[in-house]
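Hello,

I think I submitted the iron/sulfur cluster job twice by accident. Can you confirm which output corresponds to this input? Input:
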Amino acid sequence: MRCRRLSVRATATPSAEKVKGKIQRINANRYVDPKSKLEWSHDGKRMVLKETEQQKINPIEKMKLRKDPLQMLEWIEEMAKQDFETLDASGKEAQEDIDMRLKWLGLFHRRKQHYGHFMSRLKVPNGILTSAQMRVLAKAVASYGSQGCGDLTTRQNIQVRGLKLSQAPELLRGLAQCGLTSLQSGMDNVRNAVGSPLAGIDPLEVYDTRQLCIDLTNYITMDQQGNPRVTNLPRKWNVCVVGSHDLYEHPHINDLAYWPAEKNGKFGFNLLVGGYFSATKCEEAIELDAWVSEEEAVEACDAVLTTFRDLGARSSRQKCRMMWLIHDLGLERFRQEVEQRMPGKSLERAGTSLIDASHTRRNYHGVCPQKQAGLNYVGLNVPTGRIQASDMFEIARLAEEYGCGEIRITVEQNYILPGIPDERVESLLQEPVLTTGEGFASPFIPFPGNLMKNLVACTGNQFCGLAMIETKAQGKALTEALEATMDIPADVRMHWTGCPNTCGQVQVADIGFLGCKTTDQSTGKKVEGVKIFLGGKIGHDSVLGTEIAELPCQHLLPYLQQLLEENFNAVRKGSLSEKDKQAVERWEQFPFNSGGTPSVFPPNENGKYVTVPS
Ligand code: HEM
Ligand code: SF4
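Support: Only one job matched these inputs. Its output is below.
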């Protein structure tokens, strides 16, 4: 993509009222292209597959046809009053409701590991929360007792864990009251809108992504009411808005990315489309050769999304992501379909990129000056994104007492606290949760090691039924052992993922760990292992990493030490401190092959590894 550093800025951000009216108009539009596989149902409440399109569809499509999942909104109160086991035993429809349709409300039943307990996935536009919102979540997690915990996710999002169905209506009400929602966050829905974690505070900002992420979320969920226009998609769909030269948002792995660009002296966005990962295939987003102004941004989202909704494949689930449609139609035909869904049925060709491709990605950890004089943001490492009620309350307090009452989440599963005045920085850095972690499960260090700061891990087998290994505790323990034994001169991004679905995105990591079952050559036994990926790059020269080895988890330490020496200029430490030795010991005593239950990373003891009773 060509780039010119221009002084063009988004100066005339559309007013909130104007955008609200526009979103209402988009969502009130009932016109559906005649080529679409979908039509409005007779009662006009949902979009259904036309009868002629109901052949050779996948089981999820059949499930959606049997009953519209968004209807769970009307029934959740009633369901929650029933005895869970009786409801679950009452038939196939009830089981489908519990395990699948409730995902349209953001409720994920953890049948395999935590029967009767749910995870709730929110939407946190641009990853920005207020301290009041964080407290609502902390209270909820606290009320779930020993089952309760939360996770920061790689879409700047939060998942809270441990609620029973009987507690769901209260959570949904609590979210609505504080301006959050969990609607349309799972299955064939649009995922959390990602933006720059430094939006509005970045001295090098190109675009303040906050309002557009909120507008996109409001359009997608119809102001948190549930939006039947976009809840019957062929598959999930990801969107992000790029705000800085750093590409913190990972635009290349989104189905739609807004890329700041100028045309005829006007600010707007080039559109990138079709990026995705799956168990069998990963593809980077490509340029649509289209430019939209800031005012047209939400309409452009609707145009791309409804093209996908109307024409996307609904056969094999492996082939339903939007890039398959782009390949099927050809990029130019796809573009024409998007164009004719735009207001005025016109779409400009790409403009000049405002993103500097020669820029080196900045580190956001520690204390960094904001564009507002005298204010700073402080990046905190949250190892593998695991959070607990006590530290959620604490981070809310810190945001209020030291900052502007805001907490931000990054796609590396870390926090940023913005708005810290110069004179308050030192005392913030002395707070226990940022230093010793005393009183909390784990400290959130502002100056973490070069491995820990970018460590990412998907949920793993503690909570995810698809996982083949434990990811979070294991990733943290290995990272601590490596940092204890090696001097690592620069950042190395390590990602763990529990199965080939690769929610932890191993392919974009410098070093990726993908869970598998493997044979331990020394014993001949099948054990938990990982496939190791090397060489993934993010940012302007993004490349997907490739698989280089497969080995049992318990043999990882020496292998990784050598890998870091050979590829990342790491050097083994001459002598180890007591603390270093303890980190190695913790790794050596790690309960490998525990199967994840009982947990090796207990919800309320983050960071403490317990031996699993046999
Ligand atoms: C068929 C493929 C996939 C399946 C079945 C799947 C399943 C899941 C499940 C069950 C969870 C929740 C686990 C938990 O926390 O309890 C999850 C979370 C997540 N997955 Fe996947 N996944 C798939 C593919 C992907 C891909 C390709 C990506 C992106 C690279 C991805 C990104 C995420 C993210 C970011 C989360 C955390 C929640 C969020 O912020 O949206 N997943 N996935
Ligand atoms: S990668 Fe696999 S194990 Fe990890 S959260 Fe996704 S589905 Fe679960």
